[in-house]
Amino acid sequence: MVNQPYHADYWKLSPFDAIFLAPEIMESSRNKKEIPGKNDQLVATLIIAGSIVLGLLLRWFMRDFESGDYKQFLSNWYAFIHDNGGFWAYKHIFSNYSPAYLYLLGIANLIPIPDLYSIKLMSMIFDFPLAILAYLIARRHFRTGLKPAWVFALVFLGPTVMVNSSFWGQCDVIYTMFLLGTIYTMMLGRPWLLTMFFGLGFSFKQQTIFMAPVLIASWLKREMPIWNVVLIPLIYIISIIPATIAGRNFIELLFFYKSQAGSYTALSNNAPNMQQFLGNMVYGKAEIGMVILSAIVSAFLAVYFFRAVKNQLKTMDPWGRRALIVIMIAPFLLFLRPFVDIIFIVLKQPNTYAIFVRNIPGARDFLVNRAGDIFGMISLAIAFLGVVSFCFLGWKSRNKILGNTEMVLKLAMFSTLMMPFLLVRMHERYWYPADVISTIFIFFYPKRWYLPFIIIPGSLLAYLSYFADREIVPLPLVAIGMGIALIIAALDYVRTMYPPDKIPTTDSEN
């Protein structure tokens, strides 16, 4: 029997919903999904239309800013493509970005507007499908009401969303848009579609791997065949074929991301993550006040979260407990930073490195030139343990992942916070997916209304460190906020996996 549209009144929808609900119109009518009322449709249309108008206006005001990345990299890549025959320019190595993005710069060359505008336009275009996919994700949960429209508006008007593409000219929206596509198709329970979205995102940026633990957990639970995973590298290979035809070495392109990873050697590039535990801080009056406040807040939250984890551990099997503890180690270590800073303040040291540099021969050379490799390897080991623990928790979960809206969203929130927090050589922009997902998350879980107010300001403060070339708020303190958000996401995920009324028995532990 052929499936019919899920409601007889489907064709009475507004044009907006008629288009955006297209992926769902062939679902069986037995699902009994509801159609929004006419008044809601009118208000929703006004909210979305108003957000688009306001968003375009704000983006227009940002159009003339030239970032350091534009002056040093993007404009030069754009000009190189123009000056070397368009398509045939791709045979040269002139950028540390993937061929897929460089193809977009080639298209931008065809637009008869100033270089700066065309480069920004290539990213801004993706702001629309990003907001649309956020809308569709909300639609999976809210069949009626205005919440999906508000999700669209808040994502489209998101501070980091607008700044990233329209002000900075960066392209993090592209892979994040494909990550939202991955999340949406996971909610639909479509393995082939989700790996296609993930593969497309990976073709643009390797930071797509921030969602990789979610896919691995699904595969471990045998919800996704291994053949689906093969589609990811296949899509990437297809994406590099045009550059290969132009004359670039295929093997070099195949391992492009390996060479790209060596472009930056710093433990952290303005990223408010675990590496900031080792970060430098100059203690002015404002910084001293923030350190003391951070110590008080950290002490309070450490006690609160310890109690929460202690209660949650009772509902978990032994290996689940160990996995959760491993994931919690890094953010809890970061809580120690304010207390370490207070010790240095009492000792009247001007910064955290001074005591070592001043009193230990060769300490400065070690910290600047060699410590990065040592601490980097330690950080990678912690990140590896974190990913393994994450995947283990997903594998042992009592709930399925694919087709489970709650599990998918909590896994995505957890993973996109954990990966940039633990990994080395992260940039200030790499919380972009978490910024967007946290905006969606609070509509599903209103009690977590404060989550985007931790994550998004943290991202913006990291952005400001780049634009101002100095830390407006010390990044070690900003990293504490990100650590708090990570712990909250971890606890939410574990509560979903191990409900309090399902305490494991002895048999389940063996």
Task: Name its key features.
mainly alpha; disordered C terminus; 24 helices; two-stranded parallel sheet; 510 residues; 67% helix; globular; 2 domains; single chain; 1% strand
User: Radius of gyration over alpha carbons?
Assistant: 24 Å
| Percent in strands | under 5%
Helix content: 55-70%
Q: What's the β-strand tally?
A: 2
Count every helix, treating DSSP H or I runs of 4 or more residues as helices: 24
**H/E topology pattern:** HHHHHHHHHHHHHHEHHHHHHEHHHH
Quote the distance from N terminus to C terminus.
45 Å
Describe the structure.
- This protein has 510 residues and is mainly α.
- The chain folds into 2 domains: 66-125 and 158-262, no CATH class; 264-509, no CATH class.
- Helix content is 67%, strand content 1%.
- Helix 2 runs parallel beside helix 7 and helix 11 runs parallel beside helix 19.
- It is globular, with a radius of gyration of 24 Å.
- The relative contact order is 0.10.
- The model is unreliable at 1-16, 22-34 and 503-510 (pLDDT under 50).
Question: Can you summarize this structure?
Answer:
The chain has 510 residues and is mostly helical. The chain folds into 2 domains: 66-125 and 158-262, no CATH class; 264-509, no CATH class.
Show the helix and strand layout:
Layout: H1 15-20, H2 38-61, H3 68-83, H4 99-108, H5 115-124, H6 127-139, H7 147-156, H8 159-167, H9 172-188, H10 191-204, H11 212-220, H12 226-246, H13 250-254, H14 256-260, E1 268-269, H15 285-313, H16 318-334, H17 337-346, H18 354-359, H19 363-396, H20 405-422, E2 426-427, H21 432-444, H22 451-468, H23 475-497, H24 506-509
Parallel strand pairs: 1-2
Helix pairs in contact: 2-7, 2-8, 3-4, 4-5, 5-8, 6-7, 6-9, 7-21, 9-10, 9-20, 9-21, 10-12, 11-19, 15-17, 15-23, 16-19, 16-23, 19-20, 20-21, 20-23, 21-22, 22-23
